[in-house]
Amino acid sequence: WAFFHHFCAGIRHLLMDVNHDAVSKEGGKRTAVVVFVVSIALTIAMALKLFGAF
């Protein structure tokens, strides 16, 4: 999970650097939740792949 979270958070920060208008407290909270959900989903998908679910 840590790898995927760090990877997604890095993409989040790169996008925030490109578009400074998106940087706000509300936007930060929203994108943090997105990073958390996406990293959990990627972790579950990787675990399923590793354990032969698909």
Mean pLDDT: 93
The main pleated sheet reads as: none
Number of DSSP strand runs? 0
| Class from helix and strand fractions | mainly alpha
What is the helix fraction of residues, given as a range? over 70%
Outline, from the CA principal axes? Answer: elongated
Report the sheet-strand fraction. Answer: under 5%
Describe this structure in words.
This protein has helices spanning 2-18, 25-50. The protein has one domain (2-50). The protein is mostly helical. The protein is elongated. It starts with a helix and ends with a helix. Helices cover 80% and strands 0% of the residues. One of its GO terms (molecular function) is metal ion binding. It comes from Burkholderia multivorans. Pfam families: Sdh_cyt. Keywords: Heme, Iron, Membrane, Metal-binding, Transmembrane, Transmembrane helix.
